[in-house]
Amino acid sequence: MNTNQEFSPVQKQYLQGFFTGVSQRGFFVGQTANGQFTNDPGAAEGSNLAEATVFGTPIDELSKEEKIKYDQHGLDIWDTMLDNAAKDKFPEGGDVFRYKFHGLFYVTPAQDSLMLRCRIPGCVLQAHQMVGLAEIAEDWGGNYAHVTTRGNFQIREIQAKDSVSVIVKMRELGLTAQGSGADNVRNITASPTSGFDPLEVIDVLPLAKAMHHYILNNRDLYDLPRKFNIAFDNGGAVSVCADTNDIAFYAVRVGEGHDIEPSVYFRVQLCGITGHKQFATDCGLLLKPDECVTVAAAMLRVFQENGDRTNRKKARLKYLVDKWGVEKYLEEVGKKLAFDLRYFALQSCEPRQPITRHGYIGVYPQKQAGLNYVGVTCPVGHMTPDQMKGVARLANKYGQGEIRLTAWQNFIIPHIATAELDAFKAELKELGMGCEHDHIMNGLVACTGNAGCKFAAAGTKAHSLKLGEHLKQTVELDQPINIHLTGCPNSCAQHYVGDIGLQGVKVKVDGESVEGYHIVLGGGVDDEQGIAEEVFPSVPFNDIPPLLEGVLKTYLEKRESGESFIQFTRRHSTEQLKELFSSHVVH
Ligand code: SRM
Ligand code: SF4
Q1: The CATH number of the domain where 431 resides is what?
Q2: pLDDT band with cut points at 50, 70 and 90 for residue 587
Q3: What pTM value is reported for the model?
Q4: Which residues share a beta bridge with 263?
């Protein structure tokens, strides 16, 4: 690691090449001797590189991860990866971080193996790709895969010797895992009903795909100050939880009577990060569909150049915008664009259609006459290779060979003719899967937990299923609810947006440390947006099924007519909820 102020000749050559390359593209990059940013290659060349910084941060002030990137770019370790695979060796030191640029996470000590996080642009898979992923899980993984909260797949228990094989196979499938981890833009999500939702404003899949290819093919975007999430919402029936992303594009209609052409546009929401209890909020912009990717690219680059490179906890977009204010952030974004940003009052756009709760499960008619999409249950996202291959076969046989993954850790098969629905469901049942409504089981979302993640304080996926089964047996709900379990404050399963959210924590019982959770109530996304409030801190897991049974029964008994669980919990203060449910708490 180079910690002194001098650059080696190789580094100088690299930086000069980088500055020149980027500035030729018409975007900023370079710093003059007095520290000013410039897009003039001459000025950058003349600068004192010995005093250069990483986007303004002196080298010795960089965070650990920034120094790793500074020493060697994550995309430049292919030779090391080949060598490691040949020697059946896991990555060491800074390479553990660099492997994440390739979608490979060395997850020791939770498991002594690699986890492959894919990218599924727009959350759409073709049947043959699903089969290929099943083969990766079967041949090189632990014989299972998980659908993630970004409508994506993770495959675990990959041995060092197979690390290159899985990357190559991904490419052969027309997929990639590049940039799915580390300081990159994560899987680009899109409403899972895009293109066939009768309620949608516009099909957002082309935009999600264009965004995916944009970030994949611009090397500078592999060096953000931190992870970054982008989502596209089609305005339809199924939520993609767009408002939990750093940038959320929401399709809207603008009608007659305004000073702009009546048409379909996008609202832009910024800085969602629910682990930090914040949703993305509307920033006042109205974009034409073909402006979205360009604006997102400019937003990424302003973040790249100005985000915090010293403290990982303050490096997300939220913290830059908190520091600057949204006005300054958009002003800087505007400077990178060849067109003016358009501001337009949110209230003057037509309101978004309501979202169907658990609309990602069950049979629904498409906008194409005679065709249906079917949301299939997939408890906590767990699938076996046989199920994956079976689903691919059904997508080919009854649909058009397409599978949509959702942020709710399940999948949808579209384009099934009404006359074939019964036969489809029968074959689905043979795979041990179904599409029936179940108000509790269909709303379970759980992160990896301690089965695979070193941060986890609890076994989220197993607990989720146990809890779901208990509630299913004991409570008769007449409305769908969501229960989200995350193993630690990172909030990968977004516990703050569940009707009921559980965040893993170690709890002392009779002097012994056991797995437990903080319990939060009343969260929701989109049209039910709200951060859940903590009502029961540090409850051992064993006490949680009877406690939540009591909570739901009390709700059913005391609610006002038609009142949802969210409305009920939000109508009461945290103190009132504690009081209402107190008889169910085990002391
Ligand atoms: Fe996450 C880190 C799993 C979605 C917030 N997340 C991790 C790591 C990589 C832990 C690590 O650093 O080793 C987990 C890998 C465990 C494993 O071995 O499986 C992990 N996150 C997941 C997944 C698999 C949860 C799931 O079971 O579905 C999700 C993968 C999505 C994907 O396909 O890309 C996943 N993580 C999220 C989300 C939701 C989202 O992205 O829409 C969030 C909250 C939103 C947000 O942006 O913060 C999330 N994960 C985090 C954080 C906290 C980041 C923060 O700035 O607060 C971390 C920790 C970190 O980045 O240092 C983290
Ligand atoms: Fe791991 Fe915590 Fe994310 Fe769960 S929430 S996957 S425990 S980092």
Answers
A1: 3.30.70.3340
A2: low
A3: 0.92
A4: 254
